[in-house]
Amino acid sequence: MSRKISLFFIILVVIVTGCGGISEKEMKTEAERMAGESFEGKAREPNEKIESGSFFLPEEYTVSSKKPNNAVLKKGEQKFLLFINNNEKGDSKESYKTLQSSDEELTINKTFENKEKFGYLLVYKTNEEKYEVTAGIGGNKVSTIAEKEAVPESAKEMMKMLKSVQ
Q1: Could you give the maximum distance between any two Cα atoms of the chain, in Å?
Q2: Which residues partner with 48 through β-bridges?
Q3: Residue 146 burial by Cβ neighbours in a 10 Å radius (0-12, 13-18, 19+)
């Protein structure tokens, strides 16, 4: 009988700890890794267009509205703002410098660089449950508000979109 009780408690502990989501440290590590993989990966072929350029839009996303330099995208209830700035090249650091110099304490401030492009991932906590996530390459950027568990996947998809901008 005591073996059954012990087994029950072990299973209960595994279930409770497994349902707690990810820690902030795990979120940070995964978001940086996933954004980096998308930055280093092959650019997807654009399948969506606004006046200032075209970009890859993953199939789970829809375009909510378009303007000449930006688009509001949706994945379920989560909204993303894509901004295309043709005045800055892919290796420009100006947008990054402006964004990371704010007074907000950043949870993630990660940069990525190769011969042609400069990318970044900036994340800061807006409250106990939500994070503002901004990914950029050169002057182009995508921003969203995400729950902690959604930050890594959001960072990956955002960087994938940015990598494809033409």
Answers
A1: 72
A2: 55
A3: buried
pTM: 0.85
**163 closest CA partner among 69, 63, 46:** 46
Q: Which token pair is 96?
A: 């990054």
Exposure string for 27-65, b = 16+ CB within 10 A, e = fewer:
bbebbbebbbebbeeeeeeeebebebbebbbeeebeeee
CA distance 85 to 140: 5
Read off the pLDDT of residues 32-65 as tens digits, 9 standing for 90 and up. Answer: 999 999 999 999 999 999 999 999 999 999 999 9
Residues 41, 43: Cα–Cα separation, whole Å: 6
d(CA 137, CA 147): 23
- Which of 158, 131, 157 has the alpha carbon at shortest distance from 145? 131
Reported as a single tens digit per residue, the pLDDT across 9-37 is: 444 333 434 456 899 999 999 999 999 99
Which tens digit of pLDDT belongs to each residue from 63-77? Answer: 999 999 999 999 999
| Token pair of 101 as six digits | 């110099």
**Three-state DSSP state, 106:** coil
